[in-house]
């Protein structure tokens, strides 16, 4: 009896997780409740707010979120987003995108989800903000970690949950130029003062190679989220230079019609800008020695509705396999790799077309997108579309894991 109990808990295992957005705190929750000693280090000075709505769909997401004990709370904080409408330059509707298609079974703001996971774990998990891993040395028995600010420490395992541009991945698996597949578009997100007075609906306006979307997710009459997508060659600016991002956006969206001037005015004064390449992460392996990757760091896809679900499922499987293996990372990491790889790839496939969806390259392509979505929005094709995304989101057979 004692033997089994010992093998099924993670008591004493010390784990460092890099990144406190979705994957990091989700993994921390799954590990800490099984007795692991978990530290999460996040580069930002505090939990980052903002970001767009992310959604969950299908039975696998439901099982995972239920087992984490956050299914009800996600519903309590869901956006209840209604229709998203493609409009012309005058704001007249061209196509309705049903919420079923855009928002999954349940949708929540990324910042709200991160906050919920943080609140659930903060008493049992050590959070260190404003710092980052600097070096990792795995000597086979543990990992020596130095930080940019804090004192060096040693952990049994280190997990990279630090997103598309993961520092952990860079340190252990090589430069990101080898792993990040650029998909020819950039995306920016920030808050605007709800210029259209939207109430839980969204509008999308496209011109060749660029698109502006405005969505009100929470019914706040004074605030909405703007999402800008543009087609581009790879930019060479500093990834963390917000001033440079603002200049690029102002330039690329100059002269664009519809509500764009109001959106650009809000951009000039925002202090919370999300800006990134639309890209996918493809690595040969997700684990090496005592280090593993979870979420966007290992199988990210910037946007497209599948990244957050994949991150949460990945966290569930990684922690579950560690518990099943009684903390033996060799067995657990091999199982995690084998179980998550095809699933993650399937999720990335569904997300691959998001740039051209928002910002088709020509007027003709814009018209054919509109035609296609008019068809897709009609029954029974809407059902087909739902099944397609649900199949990817559910493309993994979950094992029973010790609680
Ligand atoms: C502020 C923000 C806004 C976002 N907005 C959108 C959006 O509008 N649309 C969209 O599709 N996706 C967005 N994303 C990405 C989305 O959250 C992910 O695709 C998905 O939820 C998977 O999350 P993740 O936890 O694996 O990675 P991410 O959400 O990217 O989180 C990575 C975390 O690691 C931290 N980090 C990075 N480097 C280091 C380091 N060296 N040391 C410590 N910590 C580090 C980051 O600050 C971040 O908190 C956003 C992410 C963030 C952080």
What does this structure look like?
With 403 residues, this protein is of the alpha/beta class. It has a domain at 2-78 and 106-180 and 279-352: FAD/NAD(P)-binding domain. The protein contains 15 helices and 18 strands. The protein has helices at residues 2-7, 23-32, 58-67, 71-76, 99-103, 110-121, 167-173, 242-252, 260-269, 296-299, 307-324, 329-351, 354-358, 363-377, 381-393, and strands at 14-18, 37-42, 53-56, 84-87, 93-97, 106-109, 126-129, 133-138, 143-147, 153-155, 157-160, 180-192, 202-207, 210-215, 224-231, 274-281, 287-288, 291-293. The chain has a seven-stranded mixed β-sheet, with helices on both faces. Strands 7-2-1-11-18-17 form a six-stranded mixed β-sheet, with helices on both faces. It has a three-stranded antiparallel β-sheet with strand order 8-9-10. Helix 2 (23-32) packs parallel to helix 11 (307-324) and helix 12 runs antiparallel to helix 15 (381-393). It is globular, with a radius of gyration of 21 Å. The two termini are 16 Å apart. Bound molecules: flavin-adenine dinucleotide. Residues 18-24, 41-44, 48, 50-52, 54, 110, 132-133, 161-164, 167, 189, 274, 295-297, 300, 302-303, 307-308, 311 line the site of flavin-adenine dinucleotide. It comes from Streptomyces galbus. It holds the Pfam family FAD_binding_3. Residues 14-344 form the FAD-binding domain. This is FAD-dependent oxidoreductase.
CATH class of the domain at 2-78 and 106-180 and 279-352: Alpha Beta
How many strands appear in the DSSP assignment? 18
Task: Give the biggest sheet.
Answer: 7 strands, mixed
Mean pLDDT: 91
Oligomer: single chain
The largest sheet has its strands arranged as: 5-4-13-14-15-12-16
**In percent, how much strand structure appears in the residues?**
15-25%
Proportion in helices: 25-40%
What Rg is obtained from the alpha carbons, in whole angstroms? 21 Å
- Structural class, by secondary structure, is alpha/beta
Span between termini? 16 Å
What would you say the CATH architecture of the domain at 2-78 and 106-180 and 279-352 is?
A: 3-Layer(bba) Sandwich
CATH fold description of the domain at 2-78 and 106-180 and 279-352: FAD/NAD(P)-binding domain
Q: Looking at the structure, what is the overall shape?
A: globular
Q: What ligand molecules are bound, each kind once?
A: flavin-adenine dinucleotide
CATH superfamily of the domain at 2-78 and 106-180 and 279-352: FAD/NAD(P)-binding domain
- Count of individual helical segments: 15
Query: Which residues sit in consecutive blocks of at least 5 with pLDDT less than 50?
Result: 1-8
